[in-house]
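Hi support team,

I'm filing this because I wasn't sure whether my run with calcium ion finished correctly. The job status page said complete, but I'd like someone to confirm that the output block is well-formed before I use it downstream. Pasting the exact inputs I used:
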Amino acid sequence: MLFSKKSVLIAALSTLATIGYAGSAHAINFTVTTGTTGLNGETNQGAFSEFSSLANTVTVDFNSGQVPSDGFAKYSFVGNGSSSVRADMWAPVGANGEKNDSNYLAVFNGKDVVIQLDDYLNYFGINWGAAHTGNIYSFYNGDSLVASFSTADIDAAGGFALYSPLHPGSNEDGAKLVNSKYYQGNGYVHFYSTSSDDIFNKIVISQVGGGGFETDNHSFHKGTGRFTGFDSKSVPEPSAALGMLAIGGVFLRKRKHRKSVELAS
Ligand SMILES: [Ca+2]
Ligand SMILES: [Ca+2]
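And here is everything the job wrote out:
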């Protein structure tokens, strides 16, 4: 499915409107962290979700070189273009900015990735890397759009977790000026449902316009109600959890968990 700029704008505005209903809001919210190492401590495969080891969570790392076409999360490519699983310098970096040597998923304009889930989810996390204008996630319940998010939404909420010297860029959404050069955003982005009205069972990953949409280590958490993983008592790593509670749809962020990579000029 292709998204026009107008539809993206409408989606963004409706998201803002939803956040405006403090107290009664139900929505898919997101928060950005650096992510963490793989389950066995891997640091050269990009960043992984802090919830990777949570019960009822499935993680797809693309290391086989293909998208999974059966099992819990069924991926398919729709349209014409060069989207594929690949390994190159644009792979999303690790939690401390380490180079990712593994295969990852790259999506380009015209060829979407559709992920059909066997069950309802209340959480979807991705290692989002080398961020560009026009990277878009859309969450569906059946054929009904629940919410859609773009690179600009991440910027508006405070930006990515780190800006990698491995990913030089230009002045556009998802990038940041560091020592007079632009670098592209990387981080682990957690999308989650705040009520049973906002669970989802289909995800579409799209790129509108030039540049690629690079992601790795997708984590899916099954659930039919509000995602409770960010509640302080149930977070696996307390250090990563503080400040990520959503209150009335508004995020409180703990700035010290954001990192800007220090770069030499
Ligand atoms: Ca990978
Ligand atoms: Ca990109």
